[in-house]
Amino acid sequence: MDDLKQLKIVKNIYIIMSLLFCALGIFLMAKPKSSVRMLCVLMGTMLILYGAIKISGYFTRDAFCLAFQFDLAFGILLMAVGVIMIARKNFAVDLIFSVFGILILADALFKIQMSVDAKRFGLALWWQILVVALVTGVIGVLVFIRPFEAAATMMVLVGFSILLEGLLNFWVAILTIKIIKNHL
Length: 184
Description:
By secondary structure, the protein is an all-alpha fold. 80% of the residues lie in helices and 0% in strands.
C-alpha cells in the first residue's frame, strides 16, 4: 500500500475513533451510574484499538508530521492499559479514575507541544488545539485527583474528559494531518 493511501486510511480511522470517544463521553455523562466493569471492558477495547491506530499513524508520513509524532510510545502505553483494564477488571475499577486522569493529562501535554509546533509551521488555527488541550489537561488533573467522592459525579467528570479527548483528537486530525500528494 502506498504512503498516501495508508495516511488517508489512518486519518479516517483516527477521526472515527475520536468520534467514538465523543460518543462514549456523552454516554457516561448521560448515564453515570452505568456499570464500571462494563466501562472497563469497553474502554479497554477502545484503548487497544486507539493504541493500534496511534502506532499505525506513527509509521505514516503526513506532510507536517505533527499529529503522530509521539504516537509510537503512547500507542504502546494505551494498548497496555487497555489489556490491563480488560484482564484485571477488579483491579482496574479501583484505579480507573487515576489511569484515565494520567492518560488524558499526558495526551493533553503532547497536544500542547503539538500546538506550539503547529504555530511554527504556520498553521493559523494552532491556538484552537492549544485551548482544547489546556482544558482537557485541567479536566485530566481533576479526574486524577478525584475531587468528588460520589461515583456518579466522577463518572460524569470522566465522561466529560473522554468527550474532550475525542474532540481534541478530532480537531488535531482535521487541522494537522495534511495529505499533500507531491510531498509524500
